[in-house]
Amino acid sequence: MTRINPGGTIGIMGGGQLGRMLALAAAQLGYKCHIYCPEENSPAFQVADQKTVAAYENEVALTEFAQSVDVATYEFENVPSQTAAVVAANTLLRPGAKALAVSQDRLVEKQFLNEAGVETAPYEAFHTAEDLQAAFKKIGRPSVAKTRRFGYDGKGQKLIKTQKDLEVVLDVTNNTPAILEGFVPFDREISVIVARSASGDVAAFPVGENVHTNHILDTTDVPATVSDRVEAKAKVMATKVANALDYVGVVGVEMFVIDSTSQIIVNEIAPRVHNSGHWTMDGAVTSQFEQHIRAICDLPLGNTGALGTVRMKNLLGEDILDLDGYFADPTASVHHYGKHDPRPGRKMGHVNWVKRQD
Question: How many domains is the chain built from?
Fold first, then answer.
C-alpha cells in the first residue's frame, strides 16, 4: 500500500526544527509522529506523540522504531546510509536512499545533476596536494574548495583568490576528499521548493530569492526578482531533479542566476524540507511541511500558490532574545523553535511577513 491515511503514524529521523514543523503539520492532518533522534532535548520531542532517544547506529532501536510507524522520513540529509537501509528494510522510507546517497557527496551530486541535464559550475575532485594543483590548473581562480561530505552553512569551504588561499585549502577541508568548483559570478541566489508524491505527481512553489550572511540564509523573498522565463526554467530544472531521483517528498534546489544571460546554475540539492521554504508557513496556501506529509503519505498535493508578497527572516543566536518588536508587529508571524541555547549562528526561529494580494 502506498497511501497512508490520517490516523497513521509517521516516523521522522532527526529532532531539530524541521522535524518539529513536520510533526506539527502532520498533526494538523490527523497523523501521529514518532521522532528518532540521539539528542535527549530535541525540539521535535515537544510536539510529537512518541520519541526514541538512540544513536543512528543502534540497529535494534532503529528496527523497533521502523516497525512502529507506517512510513519513515527524515529532516536532514546526513542520515547514515546503513541507518536508512535498516529503516527501509522494516517500513516505507520516503524519500528513498538514493536521494541521501546523491546529496551526501558533492561530487556524486554534481555528476547526478549533469546526467539529469541540469547545469552546474565546472568542478574537479581532489584529495591530495597534487590533486589540488591539477584541479586548480583546470578550474583556475576564483574558485571554491568544498569538502565532498558533511559541509553546510559555509563549513568546510574556502574561496580561492590568491596563492595564499590555495596553500590553506587542505587544512580547511581537513585533508578529506573534496571538490574544486569554478566560481559563478551570479547576480542573485534563488531556490525552488518542489514536491513529488508517491504517485509521481509534482508541484513546485514559487521561486524564492535568498540572501545569505556569513554563509547562513538571512532572508527569502517571494516573488523573486526574476523574469517569468527564469521562474519557469527554474521550476522545470527542479522538477527534473525530483523525477530523476524518483523522489517522494519535498526537496529544495538551490540555484544561482546570471541576469545578463538568464543562465541558471544549480548549486546543490537538499532532500528535505528547506530553510528557504519557511515562508510557505504563512505565505502559501499549503506549507512545505504539510506538502511533505501529503507527498510521503500519497495524498493529493496541495495548492502551492503564494498568498501575496512574502518575506522570511531567520532568527539566529541571540536574535531570539529580542522578540518584543516582532510580537508587537501586527504584520509579523513569529515561529520559535523551542531551543534553549542561543549559540551564535544557531537557527532559533524565523519571522514571516505577508502582504496579501487584494
Answer: 3
